[in-house]
Specification:
This protein has 436 residues and is α/β, with parallel strands linked by helices. It has 21 helices and eight strands. The strands form two sheets. It has a five-stranded parallel β-sheet with strand order 5-6-7-4-8, sandwiched between helices. A hairpin with a 2-residue loop joins strand 1 and strand 2. Helix 7 runs antiparallel to helix 8, helix 11 crosses helix 12 and helix 18 crosses helix 20.
């Protein structure tokens, strides 16, 4: 790494959030030449985001550290030394090692939206350059948002690019069970070989390692062995690892070596696209207006959307009826009612007040101090995003405020989420808590 870039990162660590550093700046590679400093981004999405949000500040810090103006260039790419030195010859199909990946989970079948765009791009980068792009790659977010899909998709692409690679996928509880069995039968050497003699290790839901000290100890050593051998590690977690209680600090530190990417609940457009895509994949005729109705009223996760689609398909097939808006409303009446009641204005208000350690009465008061105004704006925006209440109804619930105040709050929070790393972290945590 360029010494100048290393010192720039150290300076920026004191200004930016941990997530911004690990998601956007740490993955950049730097090289110095006679013309100045060249920064290489792993993909176009990262390049555009860094240019838009961080490049002016990066330039100022570099000029200060250099003692003179420095020419800075950015492009998509990777340093030659970080690419794979060679690719093993592809074996005959019957010589390829077995894997336990789900073949239905591919990047082609993954519906991309704003909430998962960076996660998909990162997983594809890892799959096309295993062990050299981001290691580990950790995808985190609530249940049913596509973490497992992307993990399998990356594993499938790694294997498709080179069938000689050994890719192992398992859930965290399977890792725990395998270790307990190895201890019981005194076959720990076999256990270690099983998980260290791989090209890519994929483990789902590592939050379940919390509190299991022996498991964490063994995974820590497995992690080190794989990392040093440039073997790819892909993990998922239901929250940012540093938020997981009873996870060892040294393990949390290791998980921060690579790239951690959040996957948020899909927005309305993505939810509708998911429904239409999955309906088409199973040969089911679903009009757009039906997908829009379901997407508007079910705001939680992809798994719930799939459940609704399965229910519709089963009843339509049984009755031999087409799926119309009226048919969908009748079939999913109870399910839609449950979803509309699961996230209420009062629930959002209490969750935000508890998160910021405020009294609910203060959050709803007319006090405009900054310590209250910003949490209040976030709560209003969450209410707009997660409920079907109108702007006037939301304003009334927040101390009788005007609908224009709610609209202003929504615009402010959306703008701040782009430039304020701490506020974006707060927004993502609250969103996961309310929709998880």
């Amino acid at each position: 790494m360029s010494d100048l870039w290393r010192r720039c990162l150290e300076r920026l660590e004191g200004e930016l959030s941990v997530e911004d550093m690990h998601t956007y700046l740490m993955p950049l590679q730097a090289s110095e030449d006679a013309e100045g400093l060249r920064l290489l981004a792993p993909n176009a999405y990262t390049l555009d985001f860094v240019k838009a949000e961080f490049l002016p500040r990066i330039g100022k810090v570099l000029n200060h550290l250099n003692g003179a103006p420095l020419k800075l260039r950015m492009e998509v790419g990777a340093l030659a030394g970080r690419r794979l030195d060679k690719v093993a010859p592809r074996p005959a199909a019957n010589d390829a090692p077995e894997h336990n990946l789900d073949p239905h989970y591919t990047f082609d079948s993954f519906v991309e939206g704003k909430s998962n765009q960076l996660a998909k791009a990162s997983a594809m980068q890892v799959a096309n350059n295993p062990g050299r792009a981001y290691n580990p790659l950790l995808l985190y977010g609530g249940t049913g948002l596509g973490k497992t899909h992307l993990m399998h998709a990356a594993g499938n692409l790694i294997h498709a690019n080179n069938p000689a690679t050994k890719v192992v996928y398992l859930r965290s509880e399977q890792f725990v069970s395998a270790m307990i069995d190895a201890l019981r039968t005194k076959k720990m050497d076999d256990f270690k070989r099983r998980f260290r003699d791989v090209d890519a290790l994929l483990i789902d839901d590592i939050q379940f390692f919390a509190g299991k000290n022996t498991t964490q100890e063994e995974f820590f050593h497995t992690f080190n062995a794989l990392f040093e051998g440039k073997q790819q590690i892909i993990l998922t977690c239901d929250r940012y690892p540093k938020e997981v209680d009873n996870l060892e600090p040294r393990l949390k530190s290791r998980l921060g070596w690579g790239l951690s990417v959040a996957i948020e609940p899909p927005d309305f457009e993505t939810r509708a696209a998911i429904l239409l895509s999955k309906a088409a994949a199973r040969g089911l005729e679903m009009p757009e207006n039906v997908a829009f109705v379901i997407a508007k009223r079910m705001r939680s996760n992809v798994r719930d959307l799939e459940g609704a689609l399965n229910t519709l398909a089963a009843r339509a097939n049984f009755l031999g009826q087409p799926i119309t808006e009226e048919f969908a409303q009748e079939t999913l009446r109870d399910l839609l009612t449950v979803h509309s009641q699961s996230i209420t204005l009062s629930n959002i208000q209490k969750t935000v007040a508890d998160y910021y350690q405020l009294r609910l009465s203060d959050l709803l008061s007319m006090n405009r101090s900054r310590s209250l105004a910003r949490p209040r704006q976030i709560a209003m925006t969450l209410a707009k995003e997660l409920t079907e209440h109108s702007l006037p109804e939301i304003g009334k619930a927040f101390g009788g405020r005007d609908h224009t105040t709610v609209l202003h709050a929504c615009r402010t929070v959306r703008e701040l989420c782009v430039v304020d790393g701490k506020l974006r972290q707060d927004w993502e945590k609250l969103l996961r808590e309310l929709t998880g």
